[in-house]
Amino acid sequence: MANTEKDEEFIAYAKTLEGIPWCEDYERMISGMLYNAFVPELVTGRTQARQKVTKYNAYLPDDATAESIASERETMLRNIMGKAGKRPYIEPPFYVDYGCNITVGDDFYANFNATILDCSLVTIGDRVMFGPGVSLLSATHETSIESRRAGIEYAKPIAIGSDCWIGGNVTVLPGVTIGEGCTIGAGSVVTKDIPPFSVAVGSPARVIKKVEPVAELN
Predict the structure, then answer these.
(1) Is the dihedral of CA 61, 67, 70, 76 positive or negative?
(2) CA-CA distance, 182 to 39, in Å (whole number)?
């Protein structure tokens, strides 16, 4: 269900990010309220994100080295995402809605075909790894047909803690938090929060065991 009030904490955090398409509907969007996805500012934001991602996905010069590719892709990623830690690396192709609503920590790695629909804030911790085909879907719609006809939608945030391994073709749905130190088995659909230091598999994903907690790295 959509929220009915703005989330001032989320709005304040968004002001620390890069490339935000500020407007009333943007604030409603990241607050989990119903909003119009087709106002000019949001359309422009999505168009610019696709232009940036298309360049990233196509970048592979004939004279490139592994080092030069990593360096140039990191620069491009910082221009796509709202905030990125040290040494982010995403194997192309990958896809976003806005890019600016994504925050990743240090040493984030995503294999081929990652999709992040970041209509709400998507926050990923340090040392997180994605297998191929992972989808983080913060966008959603009402079941009302008239609402969808009118282009109205809403979104819920997604958060993934540090030291998580998200297996291939995992789908994470709106509003989900995955705690630190988790492993999500390949092909799982994560519909509810997963507590820290858990292994979860299936559709819907369920915790099948716990792992030994570890201290956060300094």
Answers:
(1) negative
(2) 38
What is the C-alpha separation between 58 and 39, in angstroms, rounded? Answer: 29
Q: Which residues contact 177 (CB under 8 A, 6 or more apart)?
A: 158, 159, 160, 161, 193, 194
Q: Give the residue numbers marked as catalytic.
A: 141
Other Cβ atoms closer than 10 A to 55 = 12
**pTM tops 0.85:** yes
Between CA 197 and CA 164 the distance in angstroms is 9
Burial of 207 (0-12, 13-18, 19+ CB in 10 A): middle
Cα separation, 177 vs 198, whole angstroms? 12
Q: pLDDT tens across 128-172, in order? A: 999 999 999 999 999 989 988 888 999 999 999 999 999 999 999
Query: Around 12, how many Cα atoms within 13 Å sit in the side-chain half-sphere?
Result: 3
Backbone angles phi, psi at 135, to 5 degrees: -125, 125
In angstroms, the CA 94 to CA 209 distance is: 31
Residues 40 and 21: their CA atoms lie apart, in Å, by: 10
Q: How far is residue 101's CA from residue 202's CA, in Å, rounded to a whole number?
A: 28
